Amino acid sequence: MSKDRLIIFDTTLRDGEQSPGASMTADEKVRIAKALEKMRVDVIEAGFPIASNGDFEAVKAVASVVKDSTICGLARAKKIDIDRAGEAIKPANSGRIHTFIATSPIHMEQKLRLTPDEVVEQAIAAVRMARQYTDNVEFSPEDAGRSEPDFLCRIIEAVIKEGANTINIPDTVGYNIPHQFGNLINDLIERIPNSDQAIFSVHCHNDLGLAVANSLAAVRNGARQVECTINGLGERAGNASLEEIVMAVRTRQDVFECDTQLDTTQIMNCSRLVSGITGFAVQPNKAIVGANAFAHESGIHQDGVLKSRETYEIMRAQDVGLSANKIVLGKHSGRNAFKTRMAELDIEFGSEEELNEVFANFKTLADKKHEIFDEDLQALVTETSTEQMNESLKLVSLSVCSETGETPNASITLNVEGEEKRAAATGSGPVDASFKAIEKITDADVELQLYSVNSITSGTDSQGEVTVRLQQNGSIFNGHGADTDIVIASAKAYVNALNKLMANDKRTHPQLGDV
Fold this sequence. Notes:
The protein is an alpha/beta fold. It has two domains: 4-278, TIM Barrel, CATH 3.20.20; 387-502, Double Stranded RNA Binding Domain (2-Layer Sandwich), CATH 3.30.160. 39% of the residues lie in helices and 21% in strands. The strands form five sheets. An eight-stranded parallel barrel has the order 2-3-4-5-6-7-8-9, surrounded by nine helices. A three-stranded antiparallel sheet has the order 13-14-15. Strand 7, helix 7 (178-191) and strand 8 form a beta-alpha-beta unit. Helix 10 (267-278) packs parallel to helix 14 and helix 15 runs parallel beside helix 16.
């Protein structure tokens, strides 16, 4: 008997980006989108075009390069949003508009200040407007998990009649529990007369740690699209994790009457790429993609696995992409080997000049680090692209001194618009001293909101990847830096964030209303 197809709707680039410090540039979004396309993700929600010009351009850029996945833009049930989303997805081979409006009593009364009748009218009008741009329209009743079932049936029936062909039921605040949420999906499908004319979808948040469980319960009750993110990225406690959803369904085909079309061997590559770009490290015991997910230390477990893998492993490591070579290049590797491995990782270069610059950085890294891993190569590309964005400030040199019983100090030289400037400062540690020295030169009135360090690979010679988040007058500026010296990586990240500030490349909250 043939299985139903479970559609995977990835919202890493939209909802996942709402994690504080996870903002991505347009180029970074394109890199992730290409990786998702290679994994055969069905729908990629590329952003919220009305949020900013940057978000609009990023969605448009993704729509222009991705050919095999449907590209989706989010829009409130407002004409200005829908028009903007329609323009952003225009270059796509297959485009979708995802429009939403709140339906729970508390949201309608306190946030929208609209009556239920007005909400229904606005939802119908939004779907009608969206269909002027595409026949592929998705509708979400925001906060459906706390909405009245009778009202949900009413509004969903109306928007399906108007032409919405995907109905997404979001647990916006992560309030539901699996049996309750599964029953809701089943009841909606059974009670709504025209439910057979749309695919039912779910979008679950992880506030109670139940996003994946709620999503799977919904699938068991008839949902055939799941909205999720790589590594479970997302605001607050995050979203349902794509890799956990996909592998749960694939592993338990005795339970689920559907399966995805995803190439699961690309999961690990996508996970590392998203982690490297956003600076959000994956916890070692994270299911599917954590460093310990397929590790066995217990003697009993080791003995069992050696005799028969199935004794303690329900999945093969190769199925999620762990079979690929870990060590790929070294200091003696040539340009052709470097370019070939980059192509295997789906990393493309816009020009010969860009390739040469990344290769030069690779050679510099190879002199410091004997073994170069795929994660190092991905970090090199991210590092080079951030350096190219704006070069008002360049790190020329950094000297730090930190010893027991003495106050750490740092001396730094920056190239500021072509002129070298130097400063020294002390701090509670070498990173603090370096940041204070940078501040002396730039005289930037900023607040450091996030400082995150992630080891890109294992070993004492591993590159450290640093993410910093600066705030100035309500605007957010994220910076990234990588180096085998964590203090230098920190200085690079701080300078990168300041460059964005100087270019006014500000990032406000990417969504005006949560789904």
